[in-house]
Please model this.
Amino acid sequence: MIEIRPIQQHQIKQAKQIVTTVCLEVWPDILTEEELKRYDSMSDIEHMRLHYFDNGGVFLVLVDNEQVVGTGAIRKLDNEICELKRMWFLKEYRRQGWGWKMAQKLLDFAKQAGHRKVRLDLVNEEHQPQALKLYKRLGFYTIERYNDSSCNIFMEKLL
Model:
């Protein structure tokens, strides 16, 4: 059975592996696993309780027979704005509606938490065209840079 639910402590290693696997797939000629670890320590996932749950956010996983196959999170930026983070799915779970379902759950959470806007960032359109297409379908629009990440696309959605 495939379902979306809050991450459990014992699933942290699997969640980090999903991010690693998909990043290396998206940037195969640009990024090695060692470079990814230098660029993104994934400390937010390692300390997900503190970073997400205890800070007014949530971290969800897509689970297929108890195996994590996708991730997604909401991180509080301030009382009115939150950030959609860590939306990654293994290749065989893409284009099946799971990204849409995960995003809807995360956006519902954000709205219920009292946020008025949700933001996100993407590295670029060339390497993440499907993600960009999904976010546009969800009603996100391009905004000016709001953080110091190495991303080039910044988006926002009113809740």
Observations:
- The two ends are 31 Å apart (CA to CA).
- The chain has six helices and seven strands.
- Strands lie at 2-6, 58-64, 67-76, 81-89, 117-122, 141-142, 153-158.
- The chain has a mean pLDDT of 90.
